[in-house]
Amino acid sequence: MGKKVDYKKDYKQLYMPKTLPEIVIVPRMPFFMVSGSGDPNGEEFAMATEALYSMSYAVRMSYKSEDVPAGYYEYTVFPLEGEWDLLDRSKPATDKSNFKYTIMIRQPDFLTEEHFERFLEQSKRKRANRFLEKIRFEHVEDGWSCQMMHIGSFDDEPKSFARMEEFCTEQGFTRSSKIHREIYLSDPRKTEPSKLKTVLRFPVTRNDIRK
User: Taking a C-beta distance cutoff of 8 angstroms, is the pair 132, 21 a contact?
Assistant: First the structure.
């Protein structure tokens, strides 16, 4: 199958940034995704995450099947990501029941819509999870973005976002949306909050090309 693709090495710029803000251009990429709302510490979020991983590992292990996807290559399953917003912007961001999210896992470039339908049916046969019905396969292109590696508790993220916005101002960029993306490189069930690694990212526009 040739060289194994490892996102931490082959896509280092997008998944292993430094702990200082930087501007990047995020290309178009395929994802499995599920949208929902509410406290991410609840059962529904856990079930949605489980559904995404079951689908992603079905694709990863498909080289063992009788019908290997054309162009298959060996790779490391990508980490969980989340786009976060608020249901009611008049409420404080600390109210986790007010969260609105789309969680997702990037997929390899060889995956097609036809493959998606096949792996979806395969996953449904193996386990009962109502969130499998909500999974969709889409391509996302974030484009110009500001990002940095946040090390520490999720509750401390506002400090990093403040640094990122200050950096954008200095570099001639403006944050273009309140929505932000998080990429989870640590398992919160096994990692102390102070050691969690999370890529933080939000879209920006260049001030010199804004209308």
Answer: no
SS3 state at 27: strand
Q: How many CB atoms sit inside 10 A of residue 195's CB?
A: 10
Please, are residues 183 and 196 in contact by the beta-carbon 8 Å criterion? no
Residues facing 203 on adjacent strands: 145
Per-residue pLDDT reduced to its tens digit, 80-113: 999 999 998 888 777 888 999 999 999 999 999 9
CB 209 within 8 A of CB 143: no
Residue corresponding to tokens 């991983």: 53
3-class state of residue 78 by DSSP: coil
Count of other CB atoms within 10 angstroms of residue 95: 12
Structure tokens, 101: 């999210």
**What is the reported pTM?**
0.93
Which of 158, 161, 157 lies closest to 197, judged by CA?
157
pLDDT band for position 2 (cuts 50, 70, 90): low
